[in-house]
Amino acid sequence: MEEQVEGVGRAFVDHYYHLFDNDRSSLCSLYHPSSMLTFEGHKVEGVDDISQKLNLLPFDQCQHVISTIDSQPSSFTAGIMVFVSGSLKLSGEEHQLRFSQMFHLVPSSEGSFFVQNDIFRLNYG
Question: Which pTM was predicted?
């Protein structure tokens, strides 16, 4: 069970950040109408608002470099909690930004997972 949870978490992280870095508009396919995002303290809910928030970030090109991925089973309908830490490299910027992000993945009726909760923070200091 633990290996399966870790594998799903790792596969999700690879997929999510590949889309974010290469085709950000496609991220909306990972959320549902009930999904919630808190991005640097700003809370939005639903696919449209989450998509708008992510697509209107003040940078176009970026590259996520993942340092750690920690996954745990969630008691909520066989979900998975995924915690990610890493660096964000922005085009034209010399220094990378450290970040942490938490995802709560919930099984969908199609047999895959969707993001129910997503919390993102830059790590300063």
Answer: 0.94
